[in-house]
Amino acid sequence: MQKALNGMTLIVGLLIVGCAHISDPLKDPYSQLHEVQAQQVVACDPLAVVAETADADKLFPYFARREMVRRVKARASQLGATHIVWLHQTNESATAQTYRCKQ
User: What is the extent of the structural domain holding 77?
Assistant: First the structure.
């Protein structure tokens, strides 16, 4: 009985943590950063290539990947980028070319 109760407590706790990590797209701090294809930024100024890797210590690979993508977007935003083109994106690593386009 005690093991079943502990198991249920663990499941409920994981569900609460998981739901807390689901983001609202309206609250995305990088919503001004447009993810586009390379042909859409030919008239823009290239800034830098940004690369990140996933944190292997994360309990759930989904959250590690999501955090990795967030870090790429954060670095692109710090550079003043308006657009990014994903060059490579897997569960373990992501690379994007950043661009600044005149509006």
Answer: 28-100
Q: Computed from CA positions of residues 71, 76, 82, 85, in that sequence, does the dihedral angle turn out positive or negative?
A: negative
- Enter the pTM of the model: 0.70
Beta strands (DSSP E) in the chain are: 34-35, 45-53, 83-89, 93-100
H or E element, residue 78: helix 61-78
The CA distance from 40 to 25, in Å, is: 23
Residue 76 above 90 pLDDT? yes
CA distance linking residue 63 with residue 22, whole number of Å: 10
How, if at all, do strands 34-35 and 45-53 pair?
A: unpaired
Domain total in the chain:
1
What's at 101, amino acid-wise? C
d(CA 31, CA 9): 36
